[in-house]
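Comment on both lines for my students:
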Amino acid sequence: MGTYLNPGNSGFAEKLKTDYVDKTGLIGIVNRSINTNYKLICISRPRRFGKSYAAQMLCAYYDRSCDSHPLFDDLIIAKDENYNAYINHFNVISLDITSFVSGIKKYTEPSFQDIPDIIEKSIIKEITGMYPDIKNTDSVNDCLLEYVSITGSKIVFVIDEWDSVIREAKNDFAAQEKYLNLLRGWFKNNNFTPKVVAAAYITGILPIKKDGSQSAISDFQEYSMLDPSDFAEYVGFSEGEVLELCEKNGIDFSRMKKWYDGYTVGDYKSVYNPYSVMQTVKKKSFKSYWKKTTAAETLLTYIDMDEDGLQNDIARLISGESIQVDTDSFQNDVETFTGKDDVLTLLIHLGYLTYEEISDSYDDTDGSLVGFVHIPNEEVRSEFEKILRKAKHKSLIELVQKSDQLLKDTLECKEDAMARAIQEVHDSAYAPRYYNNEQSLRYVIKMAYISCVDQYAKIEELPSGHGMADVVFIPKRNADLPALIVELKWNKSAESALSQIDGRKYPAIFKGYGGDLVLVGISYDEKTKAHGCKITIRTDL
């Protein structure tokens, strides 16, 4: 067993010692592609969505240097028609490209252009160490051809974080091209690939970089967060899998769902972040585990970009809205942005937004793919909330400042000041284009109170008493603040909104709460074009 060549099955064996969720059905999909025109597979997923786990699993299954039957015989893949035909049947070349990137970055002046040479030399060194009689050592491809001839087994390539060079060397286009040429040499050479490659499974955060409008490495079948196809089931954990984990470990399933569910992947509408779920099972603590990822460190960079309309969309997303996005022009890298849609598409691939394709979702004007995105769950929302006050873009800074003042005026019962603040948001770029119903008023109120997200949990249409309160703000743990019930009225008075709160007994939901409750009525009159505000404080709960 080697580091890159036939690494064995110990990594996957360790995984089986934990609360394992059986995803070996993925192997069956790869099995069906072996030695076909579809044998080159590129999987793109956000960080912490099981890419490395899947890579270890595939290595353990295909590696001819070990016996993996004891690991797989009781798992789903054992029922696959090709199970015995392919298990431990191939040579495996396993590469984690981040290890090569990290090695280069240790130098004062890293040269990413050296990475392809280092990869080639590492493979040649390991092969010749095991087979010293191999003569073709000047070229890695010639070495691999001779190696396959001697062993009588083709190679399954498993490359984890294949795109790390593209991301890290984002401004070094020569390094990117040299690296892509290495991959093209393995997977695009008609004289080499059919003789050597049984299959290739490469994973990364981004799909393969585009060369114009086409993939820079042709012939790969790509499965992304936008179009996962048969691999959708293996992107994250299903609701049933998470429910089973919760029952086994005594975890509150409703909280698990709130924190880590919310991704839509293909036809799967309830997909959980697997890493965060497993961390919660282990630590019995519901919180964001994104802060330990490099993706989290870059979120503010993308949110602060000056693409036209981006700040408006970010504010809408934080307030809980869904927005339409055209994903077609994204170049699958981190430096080429032609507009706000490219930035939002990147956030989908990073896992900060979830994407749902709509029916008949091709734009009639140019045939591009469109769908809707939103923040998927409490974990990711907390990351957006953390950076909201760190944003440097002027429009977001002003919105947060106005929102802070509105909350202060609300808690101090300054009704006229509240009305003026809401009017200012209505007159800003964040207001809906058509202000003509209670829903548009609700939208403005959500924008106006946007900075509350770091102190309050916001719930819309909360069932309470004999109806549903429009917007309820519940203080987060350790926040010494009153709760708020906000009722909205269109072409009616703010007083009537307050009357509805009491008349329909909305405060009943807070019985036994123990803190103050602020009742807020907000109205808009189409004739006068004015907002009205009325406040009552309840202390008898």
Q: What stands out?
A: The chain has a mean pLDDT of 88. Residues 403-538 form one domain.
